[in-house]
Amino acid sequence: MTQIKICGLKYRPDIEVAVEQGADMIGFVFAASKRQVTPDQARILARDIPETVKKVGVFVNESPAEINRIAAMVPLDIVQCHGQETSADLALINHPTIKAFPVKAGRMEGDITAYPDSLILLDAPATQFEGGSGETFDWEALGKTELPNDRLIVAGGLNAGNVGVAIQQFHPFAVDISSGVETNGTKDPEKIIAFIQKVRGAEENEL
Description:
Helix content is 29%, strand content 22%. By secondary structure, it is α/β, with parallel strands linked by helices. α1 (12-21) runs parallel beside α6 (189-206) and α5 (163-170) runs parallel beside α6. Residues 128-133 have low confidence and may be disordered. Pathway: Amino-acid biosynthesis; L-tryptophan biosynthesis; L-tryptophan from chorismate: step 3/5. It comes from Listeria grandensis FSL F6-0971.
């Protein structure tokens, strides 16, 4: 079953909708972003999230020591690194990791083989902030044979209208969405519900 990560959540009602509808991962952004939360805010929001739903913290070029401090405080289940972190950096993190790679002009920037123990997230190149632009990357141009499907997370410009195609193209471990479930920059419960339903529907079609 394709895992679903709803990222950039800041408010309890949105988290409750995502959890009730069957999201597998909830993402808190600690890096500079309009979706940024403080560790204290995330700690409060995380209190009522069931253990079956993984809490993911998104960081950009933060020190492993600070990541470990925040991860223990919230607490987080998974750490997502969305900058230029090295495999040596990730080895110092006390939690399972996701390493993000931008895809530009059909080419992945970076060496995923250097991160054999991390989930691999593919995203469109950043614009104003690191951590994605809300745009899709060229799914067709990217070579699929080199991708570790069992560790692959597809992000970047996903929405209820195209996530089924993404699943058919990549057969990923997970899909990750943030701006695609927003209206005017704010999380939209109806879009969260529609996205999760589309993912589950696409899985049924794959069977």
